[in-house]
Structure prediction request, 340 residues.
Amino acid sequence: MKIGKFELEKDGVYIIAEMSANHNGSLQNALDTIKAAKEIGANCIKLQTYTADTLTLDCKKDDFMIGGGTLWDGKNLYELYKEAYTPWEWHKELFDYAREIDIDIFSSPFDKTAVDFLEELNPSAYKIASFEITDYELIRYTASKMRPIIISTGIATIDEIQDVVNICRDVGNEDIILLKCTSAYPAALEDANLLTIPNLAETFGVVSGFSDHTLGVIAPVVATTLGAKVIEKHFILDKSIGGADADFSMDKKEFSDMIKAIRDTEKLLGIVDYSMTEKKKKSRQFSRSLYVAKDLKKGEIFTEENIRSVRPGYGMHPKYLKDVLGSASERDFEFGDRFE
Prediction:
């Protein structure tokens, strides 16, 4: 599967820098964030495409008030989304700039009008946010555009995950990526349950990855070892900018450190390889082999005292020692000769 020019099967982990609300209402911040994401080696910058009116109602009844110990307690949903949204009139400039500097860009649509709007910008993929996984019609409509569809599973039951996979396949879209996600901001390490990542791929026959809301780089590194092909993390230029998502986002240095850790992990994982490389061949000089441990005359019997398995490894393989012991020497040997 390809996302833009990136081939998931051969190019490694696809790393998404999620801008979300981290422009804090400034177009210049948004542009600078895209530039910074490119500079540190992210594969993609991701936006969110909604307005307060496409997400919720401008209502202050109890149902619409945020509580429960979140970062946004005391606000109503409309106020939060009005503060956090990315103006639609910015999108073309942001897409154009990302393409100019050669970093991939796409967005999370939150209703059908957002999908129609984004289609005009030719995104390389779509991302469905965790809380939208129950909006089956949005998923059906988005998947019908036949672009790779990345779906966070944070709040979903296993039946709902199966439903949305079936919906994508029903419209003919097989380019499905499911992200393990814990929908808490920030998320506790003990709630990450990263063993779900390979299980998502196995259970649903899709590519799997990780949308991370934990703090630090440990979770993305572990996710990489478990086979995550896509990793998404909130990215902010500088936490001093502030904003709705700043507290659980990584700044430029932190995100750069995460990318390096992921790429180093990929190098460490490598491939399944039992081949005898040149490096291995060279290192075999420090292995054991058979050497003559005492001067020997022709006709003398080989014993454990005069033929030994020692370092270095230029002589006969030690597995032949038992075959040699008890036989007679066919020539003279000196102490330290290779037994070949």
User: Anything to note?
Assistant: The longest strand covers residues 44-49.
